[in-house]
Amino acid sequence: MKTIKLKCTGVGRYDDVSPFIITDNKLSLHIELPTLNGEFYFLAEINGNVIKKLLPDDGRLELGGLTAGELLAEVRHYMKGELIKTYKVEPLIIKEVEGKLSAEPEIIAVCREMDGIKEIFDTDRVRAAEREESLKTAIKELEEQVKLLQTNVTALLRFAFDDYMNNVYLGGESVEEFIEQYGFELTGEQKEKLKGAAWKLTYYLLVISSPKKRETVGKGLSGGWMSMLLCGRPLLPLPS
After folding, report:
1. CA 126, CA 40: separation in Å to the nearest integer?
2. Residue 138 half-sphere exposure, CB side, CA atoms within 13 Å?
3. If DSSP codes are grouped into helix, strand and coil, which group holds residue 91?
4. Exposed / middle / buried, residue 91 (Cβ in 10 Å: 0-12, 13-18, 19+)
5. Residues 170-210: tens digit of each pLDDT
C-alpha cells in the first residue's frame, strides 16, 4: 500500500518515492485526509479511463485494472455539495517490464532522467575540453614545425643563392634571376633575406677577401654581375 499525504498548499505527495511493483494490476492507496468536515472524493484518469470514488474516513481505496501509462489524480474536498479545495496528486508513471507493472512518481522519474542527461552532458563537456586542449597542442606543435621548416628553407635558399652568386660556373647576377631560373615561389621576407645575402657577398668580395682571392673570383665574374654588385657605382674603392 502506498500512502499519499495531502499538503496545505494543495498538492498530494507519495510518502515513498522509490519505484514499486504493482501486483495483479491493482494498486492499494492510503490517503491521509485532513480532519475537516465534508466529503473527500478521489478522481483519477489513466489512458482515457476515468475513476471517481468517494473516500471513506480512513482514506483507503484500491484501484484495479491498471495498465502501463500515466496515472493523473486529485482529491477534492466538498462541503454540502460545494467544492472547498482540490489537492493535485503528483502523477504516477506505470511501466510494464516483462509482463509486470512497476510504478514511481513522475517527479522522481524526471529527476532521474535529468540526472542521466546531466551526466551525459558533463561527460561530453569533459571530452570536448580534452579535444580542444589536444587541438591547441597539435596546432602549437604544427606552428613550431612550420616555423622550423621556414627557417631551414630560408637558410637553404640563402646557401643556394650564395653558391649561385659566388660560383664562377653559374654566373648568377641577381635575386630576381635566381628566383626565375629555378622556379622558386618565395615570400617577401625570404626575398629580403636573399637580397641581404647578396649585399653581404658584395662586402665580402670588395673589402674582406684578399686581393689574390678577389682576382681569382673576379676572373669568373661578368661585367654585368659586377655592375649589379655595385648598383651602378662603387660602394668602396677597389684596392689596387
Report:
1. 53
2. 6
3. strand
4. middle
5. 666 666 776 776 676 777 776 776 666 555 555 444 444 44
Is 193:201 a contact under the CB 8 Å cutoff? no
- Phi-psi region for residue 118, left (φ > 0), alpha (ψ -120 to 50) or beta? alpha
**Spatial contact of 29 and 1, defined as CB atoms under 8 Å apart:** yes
β 2-6/27-32 pair status: parallel
pLDDT in tens, 40-59: 999 999 998 999 999 999 99
Phi-psi region at 164: left, alpha or beta (left = phi > 0; alpha = psi -120 to 50): alpha
Looking at residue 10, the DSSP 8-state letter turns out to be S
* CA–CA gap between residue 199 and residue 202 (Å, rounded): 5
Q: Is residue 10 within 8 Å of 88, Cβ to Cβ?
A: yes
